[in-house]
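$ ./design --mode recover --in tokens.txt
reading tokens...
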């Protein structure tokens, strides 16, 4: 039986969190603890190691005890910058062939995210795989082979691009569909209203799949 290749998980923890009133989303409390701790707990069993992609090295991030990868460009260009930075780190500091990307504000991310994305990429012999839900790609939940670094670095440093969807459009990629559920496993907490909705779901079912 084939098995998915090992990968390193990279959590996007930068961004300005403007819609949360300037409060850092990663450390917004949900279910009695910072939201990023929930994401780490759900992602850690799926990968061989974890890193955090951050704008700046801050004490709160250091306290989480994970390697911190700072953005190669400090201009808030978007998640593609975080991906580029993480892939560069993997090339220099690990022997991993794959990177699994996810955001810090997704407390219900699938427990089989890595397995299914990597299987989809390998099956179709693509270097990239993205989740798709209800017909919509979810590029912040994606797997990238390390040898995509050069083309991504050019997009970020030479062309000033910052969007993951634009990068997907440039590279052959697998789209892995998830079945629709009452609560989307790709739900992002971007506003106080969405935080309240996530808290209500946790109160109801503990956030379990």
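writing sequence...
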């Amino acid at each position: 039986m084939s098995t998915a290749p090992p990968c390193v998980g990279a959590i996007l923890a930068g961004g300005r969190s403007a819609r949360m009133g300037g409060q850092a989303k990663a450390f917004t409390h949900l279910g009695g603890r910072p939201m990023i701790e929930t994401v780490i707990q759900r992602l850690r069993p799926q990968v061989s190691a974890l890193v955090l992609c951050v704008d700046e090295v801050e004490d709160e991030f250091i306290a989480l005890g994970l390697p911190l990868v700072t953005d190669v460009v400090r201009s808030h260009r978007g998640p593609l910058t975080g991906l580029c930075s993480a892939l560069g780190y993997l090339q220099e500091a690990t022997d991993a062939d794959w990177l699994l990307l996810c955001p810090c504000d997704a407390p219900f991310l699938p427990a089989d995210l890595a397995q299914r994305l990597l299987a989809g990429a390998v099956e179709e012999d693509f270097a990239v795989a993205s989740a798709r839900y209800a017909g919509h790609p979810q590029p912040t939940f994606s797997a990238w082979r390390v040898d995509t670094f050069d083309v991504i670095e050019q997009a970020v440093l030479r062309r000033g691009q910052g969007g993951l969807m634009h990068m997907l459009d440039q590279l052959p990629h697998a789209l892995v569909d998830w079945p629709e559920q009452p609560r989307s496993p790709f739900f992002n907490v971007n506003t106080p209203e969405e935080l309240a909705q996530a808290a209500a779901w946790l109160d109801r079912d503990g956030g379990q799949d």
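exit 0
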